[in-house]
Amino acid sequence: MAKILAVTNQKGGVGKTTTAVNLSACLAALDQRVLMIDLDPQGNGTTGCGIVKREALPTVYQILIGRSTVLEARIRTDFGFDVLPANRELAGAEVDLIDMNGREYRLRDALAPVLGEYDFVLMDCPPALNMLTVNGLAAADAVMIPMQCEYYALEGLTDLVATLKKVRAHLNPRLEIEGLLRTMFDPRSTLTQQVSGELVEHFGNKVYRTIIPRNVRLAEAPSYGKPVIAFDKQSRGAQAYSALAQELLDRRDGVVRVPAEQGVEQ
Ligand code: ADP
Ligand code: MG
């Protein structure tokens, strides 16, 4: 059965979409069967993997309102994984879902028939705690939280952890934190180092060992409709997301690796 991860953070611009697209591609490169779900009406995750939005109907929107199925809507990308696309229409789901029964569980129920076909389902959540994110959190086994190590990051994290507790209490008792991902990392900044240290102090091994550096190739790749490993495989961004994909598999399989700086990898 697939492991279902919601890539989420109510803050915008922290690297959710970049992570969802690039991690999907890097997991696929490691022979994992991946479905990426674009839950953001901006549809950046959809275009970022080479799908032209206006051709991308039906989308997650039709799935949520019961007019389409995952089987009908999923699209195979050129990068070895499937995508459930989104476009601006998805913004209307909020209103359309108001009167629907079980509106928090529409996505979970729609996914059930295909979970046997995938190893990972990655959901790119919008930067808000709206009904789309709630559908993502209700369907997920765990959340992956990308964050920039800056001054307000820890405060935002406290809010997010409180939200997750509520979701666990009311909607999805099995929801865990899979991990916290340090993104757009600039090791020269003292503040970044400080916040990163505090993060590890509070969350221990919930913080991924892999750090995503600030890398211009990661920012350029979406305008070519490609994940970074298909755009510049040698870039630091591509290497970092490949390492993150491997770390996810290691965690899932219980493999322990000694960090490179401390010794030879086992
Ligand atoms: P979110 O989905 O959380 O709003 P995005 O993934 O869209 O965040 O990232 C916000 C912006 O930062 C985008 O323009 C993206 O290309 C850029 N970006 C994301 N991660 C990196 C990185 N590691 N290095 C450089 N630019 C990045
Ligand atoms: Mg985004």
From TrEMBL:
Protein name, per record: Chromosome partitioning protein
Phylogenetic lineage: Bacteria, Pseudomonadati, Pseudomonadota, Betaproteobacteria, Rhodocyclales
Boundaries of every AAA domain copy: 2-177
InterPro entries according to UniProt: AAA_dom, DNA_Partitioning_ATPase, P-loop_NTPase
CDD domains assigned: ParAB_family (cd02042)
